[in-house]
Amino acid sequence: MTLRSISAAMNAPLKTPAHTAAPPEWSLDDLYESRADPRIALDMAEARRANDALIALKGRFVASRADPGVLGALIDEGISLYEAATNALWAVGAYASLAASTARDDPEWARFEGDLRARSAQIAAESLFFTLELNELEDAELEAALDAHLGAARWRPWIRRLRLSRPHELSPDLERLLIDRGPAVANWSRLYDETLAKLTAKVGREYLTLPEALNRLSDPSAARRKAAAGGLAEALHDRTPTMALVMNTLAFEKQVEDRWRRYSYPAQSRHIGNEVDAEAVEAMVEAVTDGYAATSHRYYAAKARVMGRKTLDYWDRNAPLDAAAPRQYGWDEARGVVLESFSALAPRFADEARAFFARPWIDARPRPGKQSGAYSHPVTAEKHPYVFLNFMGERRDVLTLAHELGHAVHQTLCAPLGTLLADTPLTLAETASIFGEGLVFERLLAEAAPADRRALLAGKIEDGLNTVVRQIAFHQFETRFHDARMEGELSPDEIGALWLEVMGDSLGPAIKLNPGYEHYWAYVSHFVQAPFYVYAYAFGDLLVRALMEKRREDPAGFAPLYEELLAAGGTKTYVEALAPFGLDPREKSFWAAGMRDIARLVEEFEALV
Description:
Layout: H1 8-11, H2 38-55, H3 60-63, H4 68-101, H5 107-126, H6 128-134, H7 139-148, H8 150-153, H9 156-164, H10 172-197, E1 201-203, E2 206-208, H11 210-216, H12 222-261, H13 268-274, H14 278-290, H15 293-306, E3 312-313, H16 331-345, H17 347-358, E4 362-363, E5 375-377, E6 386-388, H18 395-413, H19 419-422, H20 426-429, H21 431-447, H22 450-485, H23 492-507, E7 511-512, H24 526-529, H25 535-553, H26 555-567, H27 574-578, H28 588-608
Parallel strand pairs: 3-7, 4-6
Antiparallel strand pairs: 1-2, 5-6
Helix pairs in contact: 2-4, 2-5, 4-5, 4-7, 5-10, 10-12, 11-12, 14-28, 15-22, 15-28, 16-17, 16-18, 16-21, 17-18, 18-21, 21-25, 22-23, 22-25, 22-28, 25-26, 25-28
């Protein structure tokens, strides 16, 4: 998930640092050549055709519940048509989203994306009956049908996931109402995205975009970091009324829907979508919170000592350890590091990633109108993914490239399953991406000169803290915000107070949350775009730490098991997927071991101080 000019300065050409060696821009011609491409209309027509064929089966599933053979054949036919419609709609939707993400200052792309979303919702709403009718069937009836028809049996994992929502379904009319009004509700997210895309932070004589301002917080110069932090705080402050309105409105929308669907707590729908037990998430949150003192608190205190300080200002949290210019990477160099790291795991992983560099499937060049953040969009199983990032030549950008290519390789490996079965719950979807980062870091550390080792180790620790501790703090902030919203709308100041309290607990006493930091919640897009998504990052990071340990124990035996995990897509639960490695993420001890791994890195860093 990602964040989204009104001034002349924003519209001026963005200077790409010389060291980036011309990061690429993608071409979306494999999807469509333009908004006027006739293939868009053809694919929308194909979605309509498949959808109409599915609608013709309405009522036959329940009517055939007593005949397993007939019901099995109908299920196979119905899900195949459902997937065909999904492929066509998702391809068009992906094109609109991808193109708009590099042109958030172009109202025509915004309108195109919004109109397509509405048209797609109308088509999808007409087949709403299908999943509802399947969930009218009893478990025994479904099992008999899947056993009786070989083609239907392959859809068992998709049906398993569908059944999880059964207790929370509404009447057909209410479900249709939610779908029909979905595009209008989504415009709140659009408002949020466009507001951030137009944000400029005045820093001295410069006007920085959001990605540039955030990147400046890692600048070697303390004065430049402080100036960027102040400029960004001021820019966010000016927009907090809008951002608070968006968050309050969407949280209230969620409350209403959750109440009708009989969800017991705000994160429950996300847990169901992730096929993860609430107990596992709670065990992880508890283990991470228990580990604050030994990880983040201890590390930032040590970092302050290295920098000759008792405490650090919040803009120093990701600062380099000294004023020397940090190691810079050109695009070709970053490409080589990633491919060599992937190859060390297994040649196939590098081969799959290499295709993205050989073709125009990556958009990495920062420019005006391009939203911040990074992602790998899978499109559909019939297409190839596209990778999006803003490459500025920092070490963090090399790791981000590895992260998103990890996603892309994962999406490629499970594509033979088809779009529906390849769709992976977030609890496993972040595994390949974080693993890719880990591979690259191992290589960078192994090749580092002794003088550079401390800085690399600091970077690794900070990445872990940002992915685990920070994301769990985000999760706790969301939880507290949604709980408080039950009592009424929160003002920007009240939201900021929650933010300061939660972030203060996670960062510890060595980090000063100076005035201005209370507005920084406003740029975290996940709170708006995907409520309760963020814990998946911590889930993935700590899970990958366990997998990396298994790899160290048996490198040759690990690679095929890992490839099987990725190729399985969404066909296995997280418990089933990790069983071949002898891992059980339902235990608090599993997560605590990951926190101990971060704590060991902190101890190693302290030894170098």
